[in-house]
Amino acid sequence: MTTPFYVSPQQAMADRAEYARKGIARGRSVVVLQYADGILFVAENPSRALHKVSEIYDRIAFAAVGKYNEFENLRIGGVRYADLRGYTYDRDDVTARGLANVYAQTLGTIFSSAAEKPYEVELIVAEVGDGPEDDQIYRLPHDGSIVDEHGSVAVGGNADQISSYLDQRHVDGMTLAEALKLAVESLARDSNGGERSLTAEQLEVAVLDRTRPQQRKFKRMLGSQLTRLLEQESASADADSEADSDSDSETSAEESSETEE
């Protein structure tokens, strides 16, 4: 009788984690930022049918990277949970924290089960509050752990470099155009330090806008609206650059005049 092949539990879990991380790393990144009037979601996604960012409930949205069929199953399950809880109790009882706990249990159970492979997904669940201090953003890695995030967060293939870039430049109270510009700049950076040019057709953009009069705060930014928003910030940046250039020229002229005197 042959002896069964033995793998320590620690090694088995490490192998499963490595498998999941490699699958997630192959996906394009998603960035989530807080801005003055809500929460912004930006994903590099040329598809207009297969969304990485979706609405879950009135004030709650969902973003994911990894295998589409796996995170789509999780999204559908989250919508069902939210609808059932809101109908059974009250709409205010549906929270991002509760939804994140449900996703954490599901992902944790799958990750620790030897009967099936771990999900190759990483999720973000966000809820917009009445004010910036009430916003909630939770990141859920493949193993079912929950990370409470603030300000900005990135998931996907180049998440570490993007997160570092965002941490250095994100500030509270940014306008929507400023936050969008920062998100696009972070996504356009390659792992080798180079930069690409991302157009509106390559981006999936949505917001949870606390200023919307409707009960549902989720809104997608599409077509001409997104293009106009990108051009608005680009024009603002060009104007600032010209103003700095004019200021430098005036300073040089004053110094030259003083030298002649």
Low-confidence stretches: none
The total count of strands amounts to 10
> Percentage of helical residues?
40-55%
Class from secondary-structure proportions: alpha+beta
* Cα-based radius of gyration, to the nearest Å: 22 Å
Q: Which term fits the overall shape?
A: globular
Give the amount of beta strand, in percent.
15-25%
Oligomer classification:
single chain
So how many helices? 6
Q: What integer is the average pLDDT?
A: 87
Describe the sheet with the most strands: 5 strands, antiparallel
Structural summary, described in words:
By secondary structure, the protein is of the alpha+beta class. It is built from 6 helices and 10 strands, in the order H-E-E-E-E-H-H-E-E-E-E-H-H-E-E-H. The chain has helices at 9-25, 68-88, 96-112, 159-169, 176-187, 223-260; strands spanning 30-35, 38-44, 53-55, 60-66, 121-127, 136-140, 147-149, 152-155, 203-209, 218-221. The chain has a 5-stranded antiparallel β-sheet. Strands 3-4-5-6-7 form a 5-stranded antiparallel β-sheet. Strand 3 (53-55) and strand 4 form a beta hairpin. Helix 4 runs antiparallel to helix 5 (176-187). The model has no long low-confidence stretch (mean pLDDT 87). It comes from Streptomyces milbemycinicus. Residues 239-261 have a biased composition (Acidic residues).
